[in-house]
Amino acid sequence: MKFKVKKFKNLSVAELYDLLRLRSEIFVLEQKCIYLDTDGYDQDSLHILGYSKKKLVAYARIVPPGTIFKTVSIGRVVVDEKFRDKKIGHLLMERSIKETVKKYKPEIISISAQTHLQKFYNRLGFKSIGKTYLDCDIPHVKMLLKNPSP
């Protein structure tokens, strides 16, 4: 797995196309969630792109504090369906946490996690807070990682 970390302005047209396509494949087609994926946060975010050979198979974005949550957050976490159960999601999140710490040195990282992925995020140190809520008819929960280390 090879990762690229890029600001929005440094993404090539092909990289932007690939990440938007991967996000649409997962969130819109697979999860049947009709929503506006291009939500205005990409331009200020840091983008983590994971490649197997030359194919984009994993992606996440780091959103600055005060944008979606008061704290810095990691979101739009996706792994191509054909590459799941290969620890790629774990590698993607480890890299995302490392890059978040490097850029922001946060005391807390927030995520909005689908509830069926709570155990996955727990293994990375995230803890659930608050009540379950629906986002695009999918149960989610806010989770926090306190005092993350690179």
Structure, explained:
The protein is of the alpha+beta class. The protein has a domain at 2-104: 3-Layer(aba) Sandwich (Aminopeptidase). Helix content is 27%, strand content 37%. It contains three helices and seven strands; from the N terminus they run E-H-E-E-E-H-E-H-E-E.
Q: Taking all residues together, what is the mean pLDDT?
A: 96
Strand sequence of the main sheet, in spatial order? Answer: 1-2-3-4-5-7-6
- CATH C-level of the domain at 2-104: Alpha Beta
Which regions contain 5 or more consecutive residues with pLDDT less than 50?
A: none
- Identify the quaternary structure here: single chain
Which topology of the domain at 2-104 does CATH recognise? Aminopeptidase
Whole-number radius of gyration?
14 Å
Strand content: 35-45%
The chain-level structural class is: alpha+beta
Order of helices and strands: EHEEEHEHEE
Write the layout of secondary structure elements.
Layout: E1 2-7, H1 13-30, E2 46-52, E3 55-63, E4 72-79, H2 88-104, E5 108-114, H3 118-123, E6 127-135, E7 138-146
Parallel strand pairs: 4-5
Antiparallel strand pairs: 1-2, 2-3, 3-4, 5-7, 6-7
Key phrases:
150 residues; alpha+beta; Aminopeptidase; seven-stranded mixed beta sheet
Q: Concise description?
A:
The chain is an alpha+beta fold. The chain is 27% helix and 37% strand.
